[in-house]
Design brief:
Blueprint lengths: L1 H21 L5 E2 L1 E7 L6 H11 L7 E7 L5 E7 L2 H4 L2 H6 L4 E7 L14 E5 L2 E11 L2 H10 L10 H10 L5 H11 L2 E9 L2 E6 L8 E4 L5 E4 L3 H4 L4 E5 L4 E6 L2 E6 L8 E2 L1 H6 L5 E2 L2 E2 H15 L6 E4 L5 H11 L7 E3 L12 H11 E3 L1 H4 L3 E6 L6 H12 L4 E6 L12 E2 L7 H4 L2 H7 L4 E4 L2 H8 L6 E2 L1 H4 L19
Parallel strand pairs: 15-25, 18-21, 21-22, 22-24
Antiparallel strand pairs: 1-23, 2-5, 2-11, 3-4, 3-5, 6-7, 7-8, 8-9, 9-13, 10-11, 10-12, 13-14, 16-17, 19-20
Helix pairs in contact: 5-6, 6-7, 10-11, 10-17
The chain binds iron/sulfur cluster (SF4).
């Protein structure tokens, strides 16, 4: 037990170091899922692949697709890497079927290897199940121990395997009731796509923490996806979001809807609108782009400043910067150019390499910013280290003042619902005042949007949004430590 804890601690510590260099002070989504039921199409794996490419921003560590054909065989392929690195025409041609699910995963822990990639495919008494999960179970450790006491053997260290195990254990109830009983047992955040008994099943957790939507294909059939941008890419028309506490079962009869939980409280992750989701997606009826732009407008009202130009930290700060410029009347200009092709290359954790990593990712457009007083819009500040480097770069390039404005409130608390957050001690907003952060990042002034302002920008009822990383008000009881099961790769 102690060994596991130490290993987990060290993995987290290393993750913090690596995150600092390459991921630029952001919280990170850990997964994206897609499911396709397409009886009239013979290229379901290719469609799944396209949808996964659209969801690549939700996870860049591994990708996988599982398909099922008429003779009940599940075929799958998963590997470490980006979707386009993992799949090619030859592999997709071998994955034949009319139902398929796919997954992209993000993880920076020591558990970064292919056995933890998804979809999970398991054989059980009733046949086979393939499952892909976006989210995090807060009661996975306890459930896993109970299952192990009953003789279950686990092949991975991910919480999603607990769900597959529970479904298999309930097989006598039939697949539908097995899934209902299983999802009633688990707690936490989950958007699941499951392939079972020739059907495609989607499940959203009782609080609706992680998004999941349904689209309809033009020649018949349906798509489930974490975000609506993954529907557009395969020509599917958005139908609706899967509701919180809802199971949808898709087969030749259409869509069957079952509500397995009557919890009144909803808690959709507000950070989906701040940073995680693609701006061309809509979640629970609200456009991500419009929410970000509106956040910029509100930020301009809450924290006005006298300046010459509004510039954004690309890409996720751009919509808010446009909103800030519209409201303030200060012109918007491109001040930073992002290198979109820089992958997660390893760079030594020394000061010089840190500077290099930021410069590799972002460069200043000197012509635009020289001699100017800038408002720099970022969507969030997590550790603060990258913000300081960006402010320094802008000033070195000739900006006379840099006023930082942030379109989310200070991140003060860890997330337990599938988002990779550093410990509270590493969150700059948790241990410093705004004035202290301003000084640390070398800004001339600093302003964060208020929590009320963020809620207003999203346009949903504040009671229906999770804001726990800002205010510590978690929608459910959370464990003190995360998943303690860490496998040692040799
Ligand atoms: S704690 Fe923050 S990141 Fe996590 S689900 Fe809630 S709003 Fe999203």
């Amino acid at each position: 037990m102690l060994k596991r804890f130490i290993k987990k601690y060290l993995a987290d510590w290393n993750r913090g170091e690596i995150m600092e260099h390459f991921d630029f002070d952001k919280l990170h989504e850990e997964c994206g899922v897609v499911g396709i039921y397409a009886p009239n199409y013979d290229n379901v794996s290719q469609m799944a692949c396209f949808s996964l490419i659209a969801l690549q921003h939700r996870g860049q560590e591994s990708a996988g697709i599982a398909v099922k054909n008429g003779d009940n065989r599940v075929q799958y392929y998963k590997e470490m890497g980006l979707v386009q690195e993992v799949f090619n025409t030859k592999i997709l041609d071998r994955l034949k079927g009319h139902v398929g699910i796919g997954h992209v995963r993000y993880s920076t822990t020591g558990e970064s290897y292919v056995s933890n990639a998804q979809p999970l495919v398991v054989q059980y008494r009733g046949g086979s199940i393939a499952l892909a999960h976006n989210g995090n179970l807060v009661n996975a450790d306890g459930l896993r121990e109970r299952l192990e006491d009953m003789g279950s053997i686990f092949q991975t260290s991910i919480d999603s395997e607990v769900i597959a195990n529970l479904i298999a254990r309930h097989y006598r109830l039939g697949f539908k009731n097995a899934i209902i009983e299983s999802v009633k047992t688990i707690s936490g955040s989950f958007a699941l796509v499951i392939m079972c008994d020739d059907k495609l099943i989607g499940v959203r957790d009782p609080f609706g923490l992680r998004p999941l939507c349904i689209g309809e294909l033009p020649e018949g059939g349906y798509v489930l996806a974490s975000e609506s941008c993954a529907l557009d890419v395969v020509g599917a028309k958005f139908v609706r979001d899967v509701d919180k506490g809802e199971i949808v079962i898709i087969d030749e009869n259409g869509i069957e809807s079952i509500f397995y939980d009557e919890t009144e409280k909803k808690a959709l992750c507000s950070f989906e609108y701040v940073y995680f989701a693609r701006p061309d997606s809509a979640i629970d009826g609200q456009s991500v782009y419009m929410a970000r732009r509106q956040a910029g407008r509100i930020l301009a009202k809450e924290h006005p400043v006298d300046a010459d130009l509004v510039v954004a930290v690309p890409d996720s700060g751009i919509a808010a910067a446009i909103g800030y410029a519209e409201e303030s009347g200060i012109p918007y200009a491109v001040g930073l150019i992002k290198n979109k092709y820089m992958g997660r290359t390893f760079i030594q954790p020394d000061q010089k390499s840190r500077e290099l990593a930021v410069r590799l990712k972002l460069n200043v457009l000197k012509e635009n910013i020289e001699g100017k007083r800038l408002v720099l819009i970022d969507d969030s500040i997590v550790r603060g280290t990258t913000s300081k480097r960006i402010v320094d770069m802008l000033k070195e390039a000739g900006a006379t003042e840099v006023h930082v404005r942030v379109s989310s409130p200070p991140v003060k608390h860890s997330c337990y619902f599938g988002i990779d957050t550093p410990s509270s001690k590493q969150l700059v907003g948790a241990v410093n005042t705004i004035d202290e952060i301003c000084e640390m990042i070398h800004a001339d002034s600093l302003g964060y949007i208020s929590t009320g302002g963020l809620v207003e920008s999203i346009g949903l009822n504040g009671q229906d949004l999770c804001k726990a990383c800002f205010n510590g008000d978690y929608p459910m009881e959370v464990p003190k430590f995360g998943n303690k099961y860490v496998f040692e790769k040799i």
